[in-house]
Design a protein that fits this description.
Layout lengths: L1 E6 L9 E6 L7 H5 L2 H12 L11 E5 L7 E6 L10 H18 L3 E4 L11 H13 L7 E6 L2 H22 L3 H13 L8 E3 L7 E3 L2 H12 L8 H7 L14 H17 L3 H8 L1 H17 L4
Parallel strand pairs: 1-6, 2-4, 2-5, 5-6
Antiparallel strand pairs: 3-4, 7-8
Helix pairs in contact: 3-4, 4-5, 5-9, 6-7, 8-9, 9-10, 9-11
């Protein structure tokens, strides 16, 4: 599923389906403000029948697209942000349910607004993270998902999340299969002795770690394969639950394997012994395992 971020008006998008972020009344949102009569008529009919008490937050329902460029409009009731109550599951449900309905309709492309970030008051950075992760975790055959943003700030927030993971994955995918096989062969060839790190203390100098040549070969291959990526690895390491030991990396995007690898490889430059820590706590093995699964099962690059 390809993800795009564009700046524009959701009601003018060329997509099989567009999502209208509404309230439980089903009479709010960009489509209703446009005043599209066929869509409004179906929404009123739904309120008079299936949703007499309103569309619940986190749920979604489809109507015709009327005279819009989209064939269908999927209406979803976005929750209002609360500082005292975690409603992120409801916001994630808006995206999941809308995508599910679009798939059932036979849509191959769907355009989303930044749900709940307008009148709902949801912080943009958090909303973008919830949206992207919810959609990527939802099984679908959808060819394209498009986020349509109405402000430069929203465009930047969604672009940061979407292109962050996808750009890193694209860089990894650009390398031929044989280069990945070289990395995994080098990892598999490491003996227990070659994983052992010794420390030397020259006279009048601080101690420094000594790694085996086979291990340095693995580190060099990581860098050559664009696994060591440019990003704020210090801030990420401080806040990510995947750091320091890579626990949970198996279920994370492959981009997070690259980020964790970067935290250790770059960190070694500023704090000698960082790579030794990654060997000892299992983080480096978690990285190799995640990359191997990506190559063999997700990307299909190393068989």
């Amino acid at each position: 599923m390809r993800m795009l971020v564009v700046h524009g008006d959701i009601t003018t998008q060329h997509a099989d389906a567009i999502v209208n972020a509404t309230d439980p009344s089903l009479l709010g949102g960009a489509v209703q403000r446009r005043g599209e009569p066929a869509v409004l008529a179906e929404c009123r009919a739904l309120r008079a029948s299936t949703y007499k008490n309103g569309l619940p937050f986190g749920r979604a329902v489809a109507t015709t697209g009327g005279e819009l460029r989209a064939r269908w409009v999927i209406h979803t009731a976005g929750p209002v942000w609360s500082a005292g109550e975690d409603r992120s599951a409801l916001l994630a449900s808006c995206y999941r349910e809308s995508l599910r309905i679009a798939g059932k309709l036979g849509a191959e492309s769907v355009a989303f607004p930044a749900i709940s970030t307008g009148a709902g008051g949801w912080p943009l950075d958090d909303a973008a993270e919830i949206a992207v992760r919810a959609l990527r975790a939802t099984p679908t055959n959808m060819a394209e998902v498009r986020f349509v943003t109405s402000t430069p700030v929203a465009f930047a927030a969604f672009t940061k999340v979407v292109t962050g993971d996808e750009n890193i994955a694209a860089g990894l995918a650009a390398h031929p299969a044989d280069r990945w096989r070289r990395l995994f062969a080098a990892v598999d060839a490491l003996t227990a002795a070659e994983r052992v790190v010794t420390w030397e203390t020259p006279e009048n100098q601080l101690p420094y770690p000594v790694y085996s040549e086979r291990f340095w070969q693995v580190v060099r291959l990581l860098a050559e394969l664009d696994v060591v990526v440019p990003f704020d690895w210090g801030a990420w390491s401080a806040s990510s639950p995947l750091h320091p030991d890579g626990r949970g990396l198996a279920g994370a995007p492959v981009a997070d394997a690259a980020r964790l690898a970067t935290a250790y490889v770059r960190g070694e430059r500023f704090c000698e012994g960082t790579l030794e820590t990654g060997l000892a706590n299992g983080a480096l093995d978690a990285i190799f395992d995640r990359l191997r699964v990506w190559c063999t099962e997700e990307h299909g690059g190393a068989r």
